[in-house]
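Slide 14.
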Amino acid sequence: MESSIIYLGFTLEVGIMLTVSVLLLCMSALASGSEVALFSLTPRQKSEMEESGDSRDEAILSLLKNVDELLATILVANNLVNIGIVILTSNIIDALFMFNSAPLEFVVKSVLVTFLLLLFGEILPKVLSQSNPHSFARYVVYPIKVFRWICYPLSYVLVRTGGRLSRMATRPEDISMEQLADAVDLAKGASREEHKMLSGIINFVNTEVEEIMRPRIDITALDIKASFEQVKKTIIESGYSRIPVYDEDLDNIKGALYVKDLLPYINNGNEWGWQQLLRKIYFIPKHKKIDDLLRDFQENKIHIAIVVDEYGATQGLVSLEDVLEEVVGEISDESDVDESFYERVNANTYIFDGKTHIGDFERVLELDEDCMQDVQGRAETLAGLMLELKRDLLKKGDMVETHNIRFTVHQMDAHRVDKIKVVIGKNGGK
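Slide 15: predicted structure.
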């Protein structure tokens, strides 16, 4: 029976090819190990290398300054060497043996080359380099620098092409706010707080200052003619660090008083001219988007702004804290007074402040978010909601009903709705 493999004998040519193959295999191991060693160096090791004074460490740090070029050099060199090994190994086998079976020839060549490359060219050098990356990096740094010089043309093309393809692949697509909002609504596993924060981020660019400002009636401000004692009393009672200052009325804001500016003069007499410490105040239209306002706050290094209408009349005040709360929720500090904006009378009846935000109202009653959206119009507070539904000026005792909830004006402060009685269900509270 004829043998499937015939040995042809060892020749000088085979010996030369075998020697070159071994050298190429060592170069493959060098490249594979250097990749692991150089990219496994810790920040601490790099810091120690900067202070060591060793020329090899300086060469290593020089290579790491351009990570993309270094990686391209290693990849190009390793692949060129592996291609050479494959070609030489195939020629060596052809020179040593003759196969009578083509499938057997293919199996022998593929298994042998794969085994050699994986074991000696990849696995062993990477294991050794990972155990002591600094020492291995010192050993291979100069050969890698030679590789970089030889492979520079191919590495340069690879880096530039790869960078361009990466930018094309990662180019962001235009996504509408509606699509983002739908994605948030479809998110599973998010808590109510997380969902609210995500919704706040999505709606951030569409929210106007008018929706988050402190209304004119709630602004704490100082009369420019007030005495220093009156100023200190207002500061203590309000707890605010920045207070607007007006002349005659709130439509004539002259500036803002920063409490920290008063600290060096806290013991001055009552007649001391505190007005000299006024800082310029920032005015914004009521329809300004809060994302633009946040950018203005950052660029101008300010924390409060006065909201005015188209006639220049003061509508309210907005602070940096108000803007941030639209995303992260309520922010409380040590100066905030914990006052509840509602009182629960019984299971179905509540007393709310008229200025309560509709979102806070929905949260307290555990209603679906934006359940009042179809009836609230441009209203942001419960008092505004009642005005939208009533379509007339409100007085004590006025009642409106929507979504099976009855709203009654419980208490007035002049022309302002101070307290609203809320009854859940048509017969609730009776």
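Speaker note: Residues 342-424 form a domain with the Uridine Diphospho-n-acetylenolpyruvylglucosamine Reductase; domain 3 fold (CATH 3.30.465.10).
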